[in-house]
Structure of S1 motif domain-containing protein:
Amino acid sequence: MAIIDYIGQTVKLKVERLAEFGYFLSNGDEDVLLHKNDTEMELEEGQEVEVFLYTDSRGRIAATTTIPEITTKNYGWAQVSDVKPGIGIFINIGIKKDMLLGEEDLPVHQSVWPKEGDMLYITLRVNRNERIYVKLATDPIIDGIAIKATRQDFNKNIHGHIYRTAKVGSWIYTAEGFKGFIHESQRKEEPRLGEKVDGRIIDVKEDGTINVSLAPRKQEALDQDSETIMNYLASRNGAMPYGDKSTPEDIQERFQMSKASFKRALGRLMKEGRIYQEEGWTYSKGEK
């Protein structure tokens, strides 16, 4: 096979000759450069060496002795290293050159593009111009690595990374190896592609996949809502013009919670003796 056919793969080549800036490797017919910046090895003429072939920023085929897990034949998890609006995102697969996931392969809304540090399950592809790009894992690929959840996993806390996102919901691959779906009603905001999220299993389906909620459990939500109210009171010197009779619209606008959640939190705070209400206003104890 020609050198060009191994782009994005590992191959064993022989050191054809030495150069000041590295080594020229050969398959017997063609040469490729292994730059000294792409290896920590000291090589000799005639020595066989395993390398990974990629295309550099100028489109030239280059070699590295750093062998990545992710190739055109293998999938793996890799971290986002940079985001370039109008171009796409760059991903670190372990070699010196980061790989590009083009804008055309990312969600339409940039708000759910991955950020630096997010993790994606990817492989590599080579286009007609012999340039390497990143390819995201599809559902069938995730199906191939996922394990089935059981009824015993119901209601467990999980965490994982978003591998696919849409308006109707998000798809997650968990640390346990479960494939899951997060309906839009079970999240406050749409997670980013590649974002690590924490949730809980709210259903185990017959095929072993799971439904996940990112909403906090009732007790946790009550804690958060109570804290939100107390923080707002503190910002207003202990008094606010909101209470049991406030409209759902006003409560939603001010506190981003439903009236039912607001009333539950108020009831808890009053029971704990932290607040009281008077003439439609709510006060911290000791303030009026």
The longest strand covers residues 10-19. The radius of gyration is 27 Å. The domain at 218-284 is CATH 1.10.10.10 (Arc Repressor Mutant, subunit A). The chain has a mean pLDDT of 92.
